[in-house]
């Protein structure tokens, strides 16, 4: 099949059986790749009611039709599973080199099921696929494991690994790759750990067949040329995502002290400029990327190298835990990476625990004598290590902020910043209704990357609660996740303004299948509705209440900064949800209607 590796690699860790099956053409036609493959296979193959950390759960690592080809940003793959954090759908994107190497080994999807009897890693060298003993790596950090496996197997292998947090089943453990890239959200690393799978090592040497070679080359060259000519390239390459830190603070969106505020008074120590000057050693890119946002840094004060920190880490570990030094944030970033923790959820959980302590909801009897306070990197890193080991207070915090609030009680649910059980990413959105709606309706929980609508709030008026805001969120929820189906990065479009008109022609040239942009968006909408059906199937009582914003966003006005005194009322949030459901073709409980399912070819699922 043009544009694809051509196979699904099935790995049963219980029986040790490994087999390849041809990639079904209909799967490529209807679901495109990446996130689409993962969502379909999860829905079809993982039985209703499966324990996320049980052997029946499966982990799908899926590339897309652009992955591994010389297309701007074609270095992404998608990790899909049933989430141990939320109990619903988990889909996490990961950059680096893994997706290209999978395609060169002729693999579109690695589908992992069962549980190995002992620590194991999956070795793939083209057609040679083996399960190997990983006892020597168990207990080691993600970065340490990646380095050790590269030393053992050779630099040409691409490694994805988990750290101690994944081994211990921390509900927001991530899968790490390329020394600082993560499939971060939803606990995909815990699912890998529950299967006793420490790592995946892959190398491939095949070509990817392309339907219209000359046309592909021409279109790909045009994409690179457009990226290289983009006025925003220089700043993007210099600061990466950390470049938005100052802007986010200026508009009151920088989460601070557990989202009490969107303005951090000490933010200058965390700006992209400060980071570049203080710690960045060099730039770092994913496969095929013309606009490297990765920053490889050296933290002299703590003596460690780390990729980043990127914006989300600066926001959630920095402002949200009130760490004012980029070196301290970078060090906590390193600790998270080595332990294998998602920095977004971890920053939320730590900040939540500190607020609980400040309010007297928990005390020294709960913390083992540790005095919790904002702005202290030792407190942050101590809690991170306790979480990864599930020791002391860490045993509660390891299950996420929703679980911690249910355990601590005493009103703490109101400031547990989560939707569907997933902690909120880095945009305080009480005065940004579109962004708030993006969090409420995101298909994995309170994550920003499906719809980053905060700029629309600013352009349209931040107080407005109008149907066009719901429409914008839906539009973004179709465009942005489409990149996760393509196996490509969206940031060339978002940050460099690369015209979306490039994508359909190059998909067509590569795969040979005629596709318009509208066809691609329909696939994305199909996947969005399928993940919604998955939530309804898996979570008892799922519906409108699961799309509610965190109570802090409507109960408490922002404390300080340019949005001080602002909040979005619960009534306004519900009105937005009504508009959103109606425009999506869902009923008042948020369930896709039969007509919508029929329109998308999902009837009867
Ligand atoms: Fe990777 Fe950043 Fe390039 Fe996207 S912009 S492909 S995330 S390096």
Can you walk through the features of this model?
This protein has 605 residues and is an alpha+beta fold. It has three domains: 7-203, Aldehyde Ferredoxin Oxidoreductase,  A, domain 1; 232-422, Orthogonal Bundle (Aldehyde Ferredoxin Oxidoreductase Protein, subunit A, domain 2), CATH 1.10.569; 430-497 and 516-599, Aldehyde Ferredoxin Oxidoreductase Protein, subunit A, domain 3, CATH 1.10.599. The protein is built from 26 helices and 17 strands. The strands form four sheets. A six-stranded mixed beta sheet has the order 2-1-6-3-4-5. A hairpin with a 2-residue loop joins strand 16 (418-419) and strand 17. Helix 11 (311-318) runs parallel beside helix 13 (343-358). 60% of the residues are buried. Bound molecules: iron/sulfur cluster (SF4). Iron/sulfur cluster (SF4) binds next to loops.
Poorly predicted regions = none
- Tell how many strands the DSSP assignment holds: 17
Strand order of the largest sheet: 2-1-6-3-4-5
User: What does the main sheet amount to?
Assistant: 6 strands, mixed
Based on Cα principal axes, name the global outline: globular
Helix content: 40-55%
CATH H-level superfamily title of the largest domain: Aldehyde ferredoxin oxidoreductase, N-terminal domain
Q: Number of folding domains?
A: 3
What structural class do helix, strand and pairing data support? alpha+beta
Compute the number of helices. Answer: 26
CATH topology of the largest domain: Aldehyde Ferredoxin Oxidoreductase,  A, domain 1
Compute the separation of the termini in Å: 27 Å
Bound molecules: iron/sulfur cluster
Radius of gyration, Cα only, in angstroms? 22 Å
